[in-house]
Amino acid sequence: MHRFLHAFASPPAFRQAVPDVWSGFLINVHMMFIAEALVLVLALLIAVIRGLPGRGAKPLRGLAILYTDFFRGTPLTIVALVCILGLPGLGYGFIKNLSSETLGILALTIVYTAYVTEVYRAGIESVHGSQRMAARSLGLTYGQALRYVVLPQAIRRVIPPLLNDFIGLQKDTAIIGLIGVTEAAAQATNFANSYFNYTGYFVAATFFVYLTIPLARYTDHLIKARELRERAAGV
Amino acid sequence: MSVESNGHFVAVRSVTKRFGDLEVLKRVDLDVDKHGVVCLIGASGSGKSTLLRCINLLERVDEGEIVVDGQSLTSGKVDVNAVRRKIGIVFQAYNLFPHMTVLQNVMLGPRKVRGLDRGRSEGIAMELLRRIGLEAKAQEYPDRLSGGQQQRVAIARALAMEPELMLLDEITSALDPQLVSEVLQLVRELSDVGMTMIIATHEMSFAREVSDKVCFLDAGVICEQGPPEQIFSNPQEPRTREFLARIIEAGRM
């Protein structure tokens, strides 16, 4: 037990590892915020495309389905390897100039957009058709009905599962660390290689937990608040 | 070649609507004059709602023609949104937008469809809420209102578009009995100011009182139509008699 604690959670090593792991962790947070912002917008766009009516929109719908099917099924590690190691090898100037961190954000965005598209889609489908009908009967166009009536209700309903996916995304920023970005986990690995002590990982884990707990509690709170509201409405 | 509407504000000509193999409307003919009130009566599933939805283009007719205000809705290119702008519809389940306040519900049409600015839209909405006696509820969300209040807001929301024709689709069927009268009173007031209306309803005494013409639908066919006295006091068709007898038996008239 003593040896275990010494190797993974020794207080002096903890203190020693904090500065480097913290500087790495800031990169995690940075990647996470940018990827989340991009995912929120792109996933909504793809979810809306997937719901477009009519025969004319069929190719677009098909592309949206292909995208979500493909990237929901592909491990993030593979997408990250392709983005970070593969894309610069193509030799295009603008990609060559991108940092590994930016390419890592790209990989996270590609994969999580696929997940979050499905979340949005479930939300859009959960809004009863009579709402859209009521909006259209006022003379609102398809787009207006979506914008003012369907999406606001859909998004409100999917906030808890959305936050859940973001917790996943936060943690998966560490995978990017395996492929050339010196974020928290990579810093911890450096620490382990230098001092033959793995407490750096414990430090990194602590940071991640501290970041996700508030989000997890907030998600619980939202779910509970909605349950209460729905129960009240049903009385 | 468009069918003549012969001066009627709404002319439904030989309209047939199918859902798959099921014929929900069979060569239905109906005329409604400007300022006229027509009630559609008949059992559930007789095609009343479908007929209303066809007039509002929420459903496409398979055959026949519908002309509203001299414009054919069924032939050539129709601007669906423009048509709906002048035809208000109110549904059985109110269908208010739950994420918007009462005021926002009523303002949405004027603001986004009629393109009025915020001040004018709010003015129109508040005036309507005053008219239906729910001014004080303007900032509430719909789920804080009773069913009757919600349905009155739904009527106000439709009226905010200043429609020339109102379609009311069994608007009291989902209400507790004690809430029905407040909604019917509002419809009465609309009829008093000359609103053209087509009303699908199960409220027979109301239909008798408010309408110029009553149409009895049975299995997608207008079986009998005429002034309310004739339909309710002296029905000609056996099926109309049978339907009314059952209504009386159920204590609904």
Question: What does this 3D model show about the protein?
Answer:
The complex is a heterodimer of chains A (235) and B (253). Chain A has one domain: MetI-like fold (Orthogonal Bundle), CATH 1.10.3720. The N and C termini of chain A lie far apart (56 Å). Chain A is mainly α. Chain A contains ten helices and no strands. The longest helix of chain A is centred in the first third of the chain and has 40 residues, at 11-50. Chain A is flat. Chain B has 253 residues and is α/β, with parallel strands linked by helices. Chain B is built from nine helices and ten strands. In chain B, the strands form two sheets. Chain B has a six-stranded mixed beta sheet, sandwiched between helices. A four-stranded antiparallel beta sheet of chain B has the order 2-1-4-5, covered by helices on one side. In chain B, helix 3 crosses helix 4 (118-131) and helix 5 packs parallel to helix 6. The radius of gyration of chain B is 18 Å and the shape is globular. At the A-B interface, helix 7 and helix 8 of A face helix 2 and helix 3 of B.
